[in-house]
Amino acid sequence: MYDLIDLHCHILSSVDDGAYDDDMMKSMLDIAYNDGIKAICFTPHFKIHQFKNDEHIRKYNLHIERVFSSALEYVNEKYSDMKIYLGNEVMFHNDICNSLSTGKCRFLADSSYVLVEFKPETPMFDIENIVSKILRKGYIPVIAHIERYSALVNDPSKLKELRGLGALLQINAGSILKFWFGKTARFIKNALKNKLVDIICTDAHNDKELSPILSKAHDKIFKRYGEEYAKMLFFTTPNAIINNVKIY
Ligand SMILES: [Fe+2]
User: Which pLDDT score is estimated for 180?
Assistant: First the structure.
């Protein structure tokens, strides 16, 4: 069995709406490790409109680095075979390439891949525009939780288009388990059946109902779509991202 890798989660304590203290952060790291997750990229939210100015961003990033150091200390002491990295879940904005190149927000694990989120109602025109902008700069967008965007759920043919441009597509592990009926369930099922999904992540926010667990979604996909695709979603592709290897 291969290790599981999680590239989208909010485990760092007191930086965003994820873990609210160190105890919860540690509890989430314990849950992840016991679930078979051996590499994690923390992705605190980066929403540029929430910052007053550049100094505010600098302080936010310093705080993230300090909390990351304490997570690293805990992991090194308790789980020597676990690796952790830093990134951001970046809310799309016009200036996103500038935010990345100036270090205001982070790529996934210092690679050229960036986790980008949109609003549920963002029109396709804006999604494509941002994706193209990022790609033109030589960076690779990983679109967070594609199952949330009505532009995609209402027109799944857009998934192929986005991948054709060079974007990678991510679905939350919880969504794989949660949706059984209806439009979103059909959207997820078809995306998986047609192998249009690139990675599955936890998007964990706490140690309860939104905890960092990948194995259940992994096992469901393994049974339904086979080992090769399951391994690609949970290990091969996220591992390539961490190592900054080109996928297409
Ligand atoms: Fe998230």
Answer: 76
The Å distance, Cα 44 to ligand 1 centre, comes to 7
Ligand 1 centroid – CA 45 distance (Å): 7
CA of 229 to the centre of ligand 1 (A): 23
Instruction: Assess if residue 118 is contained within a domain.
Output: yes
Report how far residue 71's alpha carbon sits from residue 22's, in angstroms, rounded to the nearest whole number. 9
Helices (H), 166-244: 173-178, 182-193, 215-225, 227-231, 237-242
pLDDT in tens, 201-216: 999 999 999 999 999 9
Which pLDDT tens digit goes with each residue over 79-124?
A: 999 999 999 999 999 999 999 999 999 999 999 999 999 999 999 9
- Residue 55 neighbours by CB distance under 10 Å: 9
Give residue-wise pLDDT tens across range 137-193.
999 999 999 999 999 999 999 999 999 999 999 999 999 998 778 999 999 999 999
Q: Which two tokens stand for residue 165?
A: 């441009």
pTM: 0.97
Q: Cβ of 228: how many Cβ atoms within 10 Å?
A: 11
d(C-alpha 20, C-alpha 10), whole Å:
10
Q: How far apart (Å, rounded) are the C-alpha atoms in residues 240 and 29?
A: 22
Which domain CATH number covers 159? 3.20.20.140
DSSP reduced 3-state for 169: strand
Name the domain count of the chain.
1
In a domain, 216, yes or no: yes
34 Cα–ligand 1 center, Å: 21
